[in-house]
Structures are given as C-alpha cells and as structure tokens.
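Good morning,

Attaching, inline, the backbone tokens for the sequence recovery test we're adding to the shared suite. The designed sequence is right after.
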C-alpha cells in the first residue's frame, strides 16, 4: 500500500483523549492546529496564515501521550494520511475525513523544555487497520 507521509508542527487544541477499542487496544486522539507565519517585507510585520486543523490517532504508546501532553503544547508529528469513512445514523450518505495516523509524536523544544523519562518497552502494536471501534 502506498502511504501519504505527513509532518505537522502545531499546538494541541485539547488534552489528548485516551480510549480503548472493542478489542481492548489503546489509542490516543489528538487535535492539532498548525498556523503558518510569514514575514511581510512590505509591512515589516509577521503575518499569520490560515489555521489548519488535523485529527491525529496514535496507536503506538498512546498511554505515554495522554500522560505527557496537554492542551496548548507544541508538538511535532510524523505519520501518514488515511481516509476514514462512516455513515451517520441520521444520514443516508456516507462521510469521509482525513486523519493522520502518527508514527511518532514529540514535544517541540522551541518554546519549552522537557526531561524524557523512559517507560517499559511495549511490543510493537499491530497496524491500526486491523481493529475498529
């Protein structure tokens, strides 16, 4: 399968949400806002671009994220774009959205400090596509 890689640097819009699938696997959901900035030479000021919002799923080490991050934290995410499709109970048409399935999530040290604390190693989780909610 061809993956669509993506890298995002932005701020969490809410605390990470840890939940479990019907099969008992843990997954953490994040919502990230990325706001590009550029320097406008004509005005001599920094100008904010349009904010982009991303839904992110983390299947590998989700408990660590839920414990370590909170709303407003600046994060760096590496992952792949996936399309999720569903049909709401109140609608006849199916809906789709793009979701980032993160392979790695780190806190940005540009405006913060951090002290990593290693946790016990957990065996690599199977692919996120193997189980559904």
């Amino acid at each position: 399968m061809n993956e669509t890689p993506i890298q995002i640097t932005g701020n969490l819009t809410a605390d990470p949400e840890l939940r479990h699938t019907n099969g008992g696997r843990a997954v953490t959901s994040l919502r990230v806002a990325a706001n590009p900035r550029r320097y406008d030479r004509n005005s001599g000021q920094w100008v904010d671009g349009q904010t982009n919002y991303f839904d992110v799923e983390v299947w590998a080490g989700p408990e660590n994220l839920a414990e370590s991050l909170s709303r407003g934290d600046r994060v760096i995410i590496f992952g792949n774009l996936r399309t999720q499709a569903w049909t709401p109970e109140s609608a006849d048409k199916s809906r789709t959205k793009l979701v980032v399935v993160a392979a790695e999530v780190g806190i940005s040290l540009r405006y913060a400090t951090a002290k990593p604390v290693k946790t016990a190693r957990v065996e690599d989780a199977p692919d996120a596509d193997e189980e559904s909610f």
